[in-house]
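Section 5.1 Outputs to date
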Amino acid sequence: MKSLNELLNPPAESASRSSSSLPRTNSLVMPRREFLKTSAAIGGGLWIAAYVPELAARPLENMATSGTVFAPNAFIRIASDDSATIIANHSEMGQGVYTSLPMLLNEELEADWSKIRVEAAPVDPAYNHTVFGIQLTGGSTTTPSEWERFRKMGAMARVMLIDAAAQKWGVLVADCHVEKGVVSHAASGKKATYGSLADAASQLKPPGEIPLKDPKQFTVIGKPVRRLDTPSKVNGSAQFGLDVRRPGMLFALVARPPVFGGKVVSFDAAETLKIRGVKTVEQIPSGVAIVADRFWSAKLGREKLKITWDDGENAKLSTSQMLADFSQLSASPGTIAKKTGDPGAALAGAAKTITAEYDVPYLAHAMMEPLNCVVDLRSDSCEIWTGTQFQTVDRANAAHVAGLPPEKVKINTTLLGGGFGRRANPASDFVVEAVHVAKVAKAPVKVVWTREDDLAGGWYRPMWHDRFVAGLDSAGNPIAWTHTIVGQSIFRGTLFESFGIKDGVDSASVEGAADLLYGIPNLQVDLHSPKIGVPVQWWRSVGHSHTGFSVESFFDEVAHAGGKDPYELRRALLAGQPRMSAVLNLVAEKAGWGKPLPPGRGRGIATHFSFDSYVAQVIEASVEKDGTVRVHRVVCAVDCGRTVNPDIVKAQMEGGIIFGLTAALKTEITLENGRVQQHNFYDYPMLRMFESPEIEVHIVPSELSPTGVGEPSVPPVAPALANAIFAATGKRVRRLPIRASDLAGEREVKS
């Protein structure tokens, strides 16, 4: 296996490199148990820096204090003013890690919560992911991966501070007590704040063993603590990438090919250069950069630019043709991803067989804050400000383009106005492009993507086609299940390919299908991965976003074909899955499964296991005569192990549900003649507040380690909705987004 250093040093770029030649990317959510085996070789030494201050502890540049800063490890700094700064090695993109990570650390540190501060970590091996071996945020892994490390970092600091107080007072450590950042000795009445002990604690060596609290003693973990990043976002002081300003900074937009893989033949910048404020117009590998003193000048300049493009081999790409091609491809089995029993023989002997095909489109991430990146490139250094999920990879790729060693590249991670995977691009496309622009701008420069750039810029959730065949016995029970998946690989061509693709199967393509929890004795899942010139990567919940819809919708078809209640059949086939059974039963109870509904409404149910979490949802929906879908209520049950902050878990479940409903009802990326047809929110709409349903979230209590919450609520949404529509109307939904035209008109209304 290649070392991480080899993987992060791509071959030299050529000036003619086209956008489609960038590595195609996807998921941080490969099965973690398998990834642990392969990542051990590159991650084995990562913990040393976290525990040894001589390697990891370094002062923060912007910590203003006249006294000693106590830095026992890479994750905590305590100043003489009693402030405790937590260094967050994961990016805050709205998911709440700037609160949950400090909660983990302070559970053991026991500082005064009102004096906790958070700062983004620099790029350094001390902050590498405990599983993936590089610094990143993704795969719903932040809390699970830091569950132990952050608590140990806090405990390390607490032990050293108490030791410092005990030595100062000449008393036993066991006789000292700490609460809200104050160490006390009851017998003598002596007290000392953490800040006053910073100097003495800095002289001590870290303890060899770091005992952690019994969970029964937790005072912070499990409580609904208010988020630390909320005040700055309310008062406007929070800094996102778009907020960054540097002395002498210029602005740039890039004119990119209208067809993926296209190249510049020639361009005429005469009219562009007449726009007031435009400084220069230069060709770069991804297109033509317009550099100006203001964003608007660059935008007007780009509109005046005349470019002759060579559209290349993707000029005839069309999603309508792809749909037909994918369906044809699915008619024959692909590479086997999972096989149990003898599905062929079981289907041949089945009392009844049913077949269905499902389609989902390309999807853009459509973050509220479009992509942006500020680069200050100098002869001997490169400093970058951006909202990134992929610090280690971005630094390596930026260093390669800048012609500098990685240690000469500094990345300042700002707050992210949404990420959903787009800002974790293995090609570092928006960062690499900004470094190229900085080369020609010859000044600090901010490269900004407009909404139109974002939607047409590629790196989508892949388009997928799923074909199912199920066989039922005479009692209506499923005895055979085959599932053929067609869609682009998102690991192929990336530095994660050797981890994510095994025996020709991209794990991100089949997750949620090859690990099906239902006890069906004869099962086969196989995969076709066509090569298409549309750049793709991971999107919130990755492969689960399509398998959740297709698997759970088809399961509903199987239940009805066998005369079974969809909830009861799930219960029967999940008998060997106690955690999923628990969330299924809980959601059915809370949703009132089986109870009467108002006329015209239907209930749909779905479950899904992803990111090591168990989720079940019930949706109540109705359909107007013109086909308009109304979602009235969503009930969600989740088992994500021990809950660090229940408010954050609920918020993530709610956000994922809205995200999933938007994809189910509103959005798709389509291509015609190689060109993306969507432009802005008027033709790539988001779910509006007045369309949002009542949402209930129920968390299953657990004493197990935390699992993911950022993505697991997305996969069950679309199937629960599709199943509710069937319950209400008798019409099946087998493609997304749900079109009113498919549901309009007279129909059977079911009870």
